[in-house]
Each structure stands twice: as C-alpha cells, then as structure tokens.
Amino acid sequence: MGIRILKGGLMTTVQDGGRRGYQRFGMGVSGAVDVHSYVYANILVGNHKDEAVLEATMLGPSIKFISSSVIAITGGDLSPSLDGKPAPMYQALAVKKGSILSFGMMKSGCRAYIAFAGGLMIQPIMGSRSTYIRAALGGFEGRKLMDGDEIAFRQRGVIPKNLSLRRMEPEIFKSPYTVRVLMGPQDDRFTEKGLKTFLGEDYKVTEQFDRMGCRLTGPKIEHVTDGNIITDGIAFGAIQVPDGGEPIIMLSDRQTTGGYAKIGSVINVDMPYIAQAKTGDVIRFVKTDIVTAQDAFVAQLEKYDQLRESFDHPPASALEGSSPEWTQETKSGTGADSSASPADKAALREENASPKTGKYLVKVGSRAYKITLKEIE
Amino acid sequence: MTYPVVKMTGDTSVAVVFGDAISEEINLKIRAFDEALARENIAGIYETVPTYCTLMIHYAPEVIRYRELSQKLEKLLLGTHEAEKLETRIMEIPVCYGGEYGPDLDYVAEYHQMSKEEVIKLHTEAEYLIYMLGFTPGFSYMGGMDERIATPRLKTPRVLIPAGSVGIAGGQTGIYPIDSPGGWQLIGRTPVRMYDAERQTPILLDAGLHVRFVPINEEQYQSILQKVESGRYRCKTYVKEGE
User: What value of ipTM does the predicted structure carry?
Assistant: First the structure.
C-alpha cells in the first residue's frame, strides 16, 4: 500500500540527504539537489529530515495513491494538482486513497519535492535511499521512476499532529540569482582579470544542467596557464572552470574527484538557487567569507528546528485561531476518523454547524473534549 | 608554495594539500595523515577523501567551525612529519588473461612486438599502489605499471565493458568495477567483485593498498566465480616482509 506511478515524468527519483562516508571509494553522494526544499517537505509532514522523498524535475510525474497519505510539495512550482484541482505547495495535505497527484506547467524553479508522512519503503544502500543513476544503485532499482512503478509507504497511515498548522511561506525562485561564493581552492590558477570576470559578469544556465552539474555560459574566465589540475576531491557547489573558461557548478550526482581547476564554491545555503535554476536563468557570483557562510549554514539548521518545533508544539495562540472539529461519537467508539480528508472534515463541520443532540468529540488544535449535548427546554 | 597547506574548499570541507605531483612519497604522507587524523577522532569530521596530492576533509560546521578545525589540522600536521612506518599491505587479484576475458591482449602484444606471455608476465610482476579511488564506485587509480606495456586507448570506446575487466590505458592499468562503457585495452578479467552492495565492505579496494595480479586459467576463473557468488571467496592479503 503506497503509491503507483502512472507517469514517470522527465526525471523523478527517490532522494534523501545523500550517501555519506563512501566518497573515498569513488561512490558519489547523490541526494536531493535542493536541500532546503527537501528538508522542508519532510518537516511539513512530520518526518525525520533524512526521510526519502521524490524529486521531480521540470516535467513532474503523475501519482495514484493506493492508500491515503499526508504529503507536502515544496521547491520549484511545477503546477501540482490533486484530482485536477490545484494543490497548494508548502503545506501538509491529506490525500485520500484513489486520488491522483499530477503536475503541469513549470512556473518557477525546476525541481519539486514530494514528501510522504511515514516515508517510502526503499531499501537503504550504504546508509542512504538516494538514487545514483550513473552507478545504477540506490533508490528505486537504481533508476528514475517509470510508468507502473509502485512504492509502498514505510509506515502507513501516519498523520502528523496539528495538520492544519503545517504550512509555511513558500520559497521564491526567480532569476537572476545572486549566489555567494568562497574563493578557492585553485583560485590561484586564474589571472586577476579572470577573477574579475568571474565576480563581475552575468552567467547564464545552458541546456546542460542535470543532477551532476550545472553548466553556465558567459564571458570566458582567464586561466594563468590552463584549467587542468592533478585530480582531487570535489565538494557540492564547487565551481570548476575547464579550459574553455566557462564555469560548471557541481551538484549531487557529481563524480567524487575531478581534474579541472575550481575557482570557488557556492555556499551551501545559496545552493537551492542553483538547484532551481534552468536554461536561460542568470547567475551572479559575489564573494563572501567563511564566517558569514558558516553562520548562515548553522542559522539554516536552527530554522529547521524552529519550524519543526512550531508544528509539534505550537504556541497556544496558534491553536486558538483554529476552528474546532466536531465528530459525533458512534456506537463503536469515538468515531473520530483522523484520516478523513480536509474535504470530509469540512463537510462534517458544516453539518455540525448546528449540532444535534448527542455525544461529540470536539478537537481544538491538539486538544480533544468530549461534549454531550442535550435539549434544553 | 610550501607544503603541507590547509585550503578551504567550501563551507563544509577543507583540503590538506601535500604537494603538486603524483608520487608515492606524497601519497604515503597523505595516508599517514589520514590515519593520524582518524585516531584524533575530531568531532564534526564525517568523511575524508584521499586523492593524489590532497586529503579532503568533510565536516559539519554546526559541530566545528573552519577556524577551529584548521588550527587543529595545522597542529596535527606539525606532529606527523615523522610518519610512523606504514606497512605495505598487498592484495592478490586473480585475473584470467586473454581470450574472451581479455579481447585486446593480442593487440597489446602485437603493438609491443612481444608474446602474450610476456605481456602477462610484465603485468603480473609489478606491485601496483592504489593512489586513490574515484570516477565510479570502486574505480582505483593505480601506479606502477611497466612502461613496456603502456598502450594507447581504443580509438572507438566500447559501449559495454563487463565488471571485473582489467585494462590498460596509456601508462595506467585498472579494473572496471561496474559494467560501463569505456576505451581501455582489455587484457583480462577478474571473477572478484570490486563492488558489491550486499557485502559488508561494498568496495573491495582502498587507497594506499597495493595490488598484485595473479594469472589464473579459465577453470580457476569459474571455480573462483562460484565461490564469489556464494560469498565464500576472500582475496589473499598480506603484509610485505622486509624493508
């Protein structure tokens, strides 16, 4: 019980935080390209932040729910819809069994993330559920999802608490993107003029951008001699400049080592912009320093914690605003169907606008009250 | 530039650069430092990646910041100039040369105007140091091949090379860890798996290890393959005596 892929889309893969600890063996890290969107999706549905999600690229998949679930869609706006109606992004959505999630036009960004409460039943390989297509390993059979694939949920029927509060301000992805870079480790392989070009000019994303790297075009960055170095390690966000003088930003499926000079690297907190940039988008590089970069990195982690905390233990004021949910107690017990879809619950609320006599379970935020209504003469 | 030097490679990694050439001496320093660093057990470091001249260190800034880490690394570098003698570990990799296992052995022999036996002899006599792994999972960059069998790559790369194929490309030799396209001259194949996701150590080889190729015939190939498939085969590994 889980999901069935009706249409795979252009490049839909299972990804998590990536495969750490095996780069020394030539094993790529993989993982979600837009790390922030991936973590937000998981937090919105109450998952651990390393739970596997689906990463859809440009042309999203079409997914049928074989069992009900709670999902969240984040990242680039690929016009998601549930059963034909536009589905809001950056919030937890209860999805009924039989519903179909599909995608349409690419409105902003290019990569969307879909998290499922309880996670996806994918066997971890070397500590990760991420798909590494080049080596055909991890994720779902080491490949992108195709029509007819089925993935079960790791835990079924997980409903995160405070469902209605699980929403956040959407991230905005709009070209031009200005990203901060730390110079090095081979910035000494470029001339003064080359460094000036790199930091002063606009670069455009070419058609060659995939999970491995994002190739840019623009004014040539001048090397002292050439762009070749003795092969060394490559970090996520490293900016290689081969002989041609045009930069390539290395992403999740990068090879672990490479022989091109790296002028600098995009700092981690700005990498989501590169992850969401598509052909024709403009990238501008500005220099920053390590203290600023790491302060921002740590602040981002704190933001995740605060977001999770605000969903799990919301302040009383957040709960006050939420309208009570009335459920009539049935013979068999409480009758509270926590997996009811928002539509069902709305219908129930309407019906209960003027409650009839009887026993009711009334939920306000995370609290529940048993109320018995009697007729008063 | 004076080495070693600590260089920033982004906000979650640093590289310690030990030189600017491909040499056993530099590689040995990297290995010694990598091992010394592992013993230090510095909180926040989650992965190190040795390459020809550098050791890349990945870390979590929420645990340790760049300034503190680079200071620790520099302090440790002062202490590891006199690296303790690292033992030379050798792993024997059985290889069936020629025929369908090494379709380019004839070409390599012809290219150097020697017999196939001579090519095999030169290829199996050497001890190859694994400088680093990279490119694809389990692909090792080995040094130490006899110049006399150095052979240019194929003009047209093959679409599919089976995992375990042993090849020559210029002055390099190596083993294809997974089925992949490639242009190396294939002289043999090993039944041993360089990469096996199910194995406790998915990747067989590691940087710093030495490899010796041991010639086997087709019958031995099949018998080792059976053991490999049932998880009962271990490559002979030993520490080199003397020195």
Answer: 0.87
